[in-house]
Design brief:
The chain is α+β, with helices and mostly antiparallel strands. Helix content is about 45%, strand content about 15%. The protein contains five helices and ten strands, in the order H-H-E-E-H-E-E-E-E-E-E-E-E-H-H. The protein has helices at about 25-50, 65-80, 110-120, 210-220, 225-290, and strands at about 95-100, 105, 130-135, 140, 150-160, 165, 170-175, 180-185, 190-195, 200-205. The strands form two sheets. The protein has an eight-stranded antiparallel beta sheet, with no helix packed on it. Helix 2 (about 65-80) runs antiparallel to helix 4 (about 210-220). The protein is elongated, with a radius of gyration of 38 Å.
């Protein structure tokens, strides 16, 4: 069992029975944490994209296509099978993670209990990447930098090409400790070891955990080429343009204020002169009438 260390406290000539079991409480806590995280993430996306059909209280990113695509990717991620963890695909619904009519995630105690009783190893797919084999006579390991698409790959000898295969990729075989060691040019860092020199066909399971898939989704959002980053750049550019336009408008406002103030002053002066002229003419007319 990879990753397990056993310390022997005393010599014993006989056999020693070692028993290990997953903690149901810990597994349940992990499932509930995943549910809480998914709901928080969904709630924030819903807030950003909220459309108020009866008022003007839309979310700040309502109708934004980039965030809309992100919501779709999150939904697709939660309903897509977790491949390469066992001989069957695993779904979040198998682990007790389900959605109600509003899209909210909730804990299904009955489904959780059934899966925990029948296939407790399925829950490892939530947190741990997997690479394992279908037989005890073979082991498979890979470098942390080796990227193999999740799935089931058959290791067998292809008589038509006289080549060992890992799925459709070629394997290189060498003798190793009385058995065989296989490596791959297609997947550098992959190592498969068998106790048999010419093993019968068997499967290798390689799967990405759900948590790693969430990390990859977040990373895709943050990359410079992502639609979210593109939208952010567009918003920043638009914000800069608007700010510059406000500065220009403020300057124009000052110019117009000065212009119209000057014009108003000139008009007021003209009106004063006109009133004086009017008074002068009225007095002239009255004086002229009296002379007649």
């Amino acid at each position: 069992i990879q990753g397990v260390t056993i310390d022997l406290k005393a010599d014993d000539a006989g056999s020693v029975q070692y028993t290990a079991a997953r903690s149901e409480a810990s597994v349940k806590a992990t499932v509930e944490k995943v549910i809480s995280t998914l709901n928080d993430y969904k709630k924030e996306l819903d807030r950003l994209t909220y459309i108020d059909v009866e008022g003007d209280n839309n979310g700040p990113l309502a109708m934004d296509p980039a965030v809309g695509r992100l919501k779709s990717k999150l939904k697709a991620l939660t309903i897509t099978a977790l491949k390469g963890h066992a001989d069957k695909n695993i779904y979040l619904s198998n682990l007790g993670i389900k959605t109600d009519s509003s899209g909210e995630y909730f804990f299904d105690k009955v489904t959780f209990g059934k899966t925990y009783a029948d296939n407790p190893e399925y829950f490892s797919a939530l947190k741990d990447d997997n690479i394992s084999t279908s037989v005890v006579t073979a082991t498979a390991t890979k470098s942390q930098f080796t990227k193999i698409p999740s799935g089931t790959y058959e290791v067998k000898y292809d008589t038509s090409s006289s080549t060992w295969k890992f799925g459709t990729a070629n394997l290189i075989r060498v003798d190793y400790n009385g058995g065989s060691r296989f490596t791959s040019v297609t997947y550098p860092g992959l190592v498969i070891e068998t106790t048999d020199a010419n093993p019968a066909a068997f499967n290798v399971f390689t799967g990405k955990s759900f948590s790693q898939s969430m990390v990859d989704l977040a990373d895709s959002v943050l990359t410079a080429s992502s639609s979210i980053k593109t939208a952010e750049t567009a918003y920043r550019t638009s914000n800069t343009d608007v700010a510059q336009k406000l500065v220009d408008l403020e300057a124009r406002e000052k110019l117009l204020t000065t212009r119209y103030t000057t014009q108003f002053g000139d008009m007021e002066q003209s009106m004063s002169q006109f009133n004086s002229t009017k008074t002068l003419l009225e007095n002239f007319v009255e004086a002229w009438k009296k002379q007649k």
